[in-house]
């Protein structure tokens, strides 16, 4: 790994450039949600076709993440960052001039290629340039971005499309990308180690088929059902591809994605728990607006306003929990957070037609506070277990598992909701679904009891 004197002394400017890039990447996943009806009308396309602008982005983004460890070892930090931001900018330009769906879809694919690079690259660089006893606070800042950016995306795009064309969204992305590129030119330094690994085409094909198949199958399962031939076919192809991909990685001297990271118990436990919690987060952000609009008759604006305070609270507590991690470790905070998430799930499992907007907002904010106490500390604890050479593989593996887990969780919980609602109504369905989430949270809490902090690290911090 790079010697200590090659780590930039003034880290903050570099961190700002990286986090701004991550914000752009995350906003890209949610900015189009409120603009899709306008795009459908202007391009004369159906809703199912328009949804590919978000589904396709998610698939490409998900396929890019597993190969990030290879890219980080192949190319310098600056080359990767500038390539990623250039993809985002070029995709935005194509979207601005697009007058047909295929061209707009191409723009989204190019943007997704850049977005898939930015998040793992940021996490890897931050883990390298900061010593273990300071990683908590910087990962707290990352947690704030991850929690807050998706929530404000639909709000920002809603305001933009109300006053301007949907293409103005891409103008905003383009301008911010150019500003960040200019700032990064003076602040980004090469801090990752280049091992110049050989390109393993078979691993890339298996990775694409595996993760792409599972992500696509899970995303289609919510609408087509798990027994649909397309869903089953893509899931089977995905699973088989992942089996062969895993075997190949373990047999290679220099793996594209080094799965040895999962041999570390603390890392694996942190990934499993945070993936489950991230899955329940995404699922609840999908199910609650559906319940509010379809059952309670509330507006899309109200559902967005319900989510916003919770996202803001999660962002603030992510910062706090990151600092606390550097002082007291992850175990206590994560256990408290898991209890909070379980309790909030029980509160959401007793919804009625009289449930108020305020009730939903308060319980959701309570839930998000608990999640902030889980994700930031456990993510940092897990990555702290890895030696420097494995950090790129750890961040890639962690982000990949979360992406797949969130997609599968959402599909499973939507299926539970639909199945329970058929004979007993939507209120019964939403209550059963959150009851299952409560049970899953309790299982995660039991797993959390096996978490152990790094005592030597804590003793060093106290000194």
From TrEMBL:
Membrane topology classification: Multi-pass membrane protein
Molecular-function GO term, any one: transmembrane transporter activity
Cellular location(s): Cell membrane
Domain of life: Bacteria
Matching SUPFAM superfamilies: MFS general substrate transporter
Major facilitator superfamily (MFS) profile domain mapped to chain residues: 14-456
GO-annotated cellular components: plasma membrane
The keyword Cell membrane belongs to this UniProt entry's keyword annotation: yes
Transmembrane segments: 12-40, 52-72, 79-98, 110-130, 142-163, 169-187, 199-218, 224-246, 267-288, 300-320, 332-351, 357-383, 404-422, 428-451
Keyword entries, A-Z: Cell membrane, Membrane, Transmembrane, Transmembrane helix, Transport
A Pfam short name: MFS_1
Keyword Membrane (UniProt): yes
The protein's name in its UniProt record: DHA2 family efflux MFS transporter permease subunit
Upper lineage: Bacteria, Bacillati, Bacillota, Clostridia, Eubacteriales
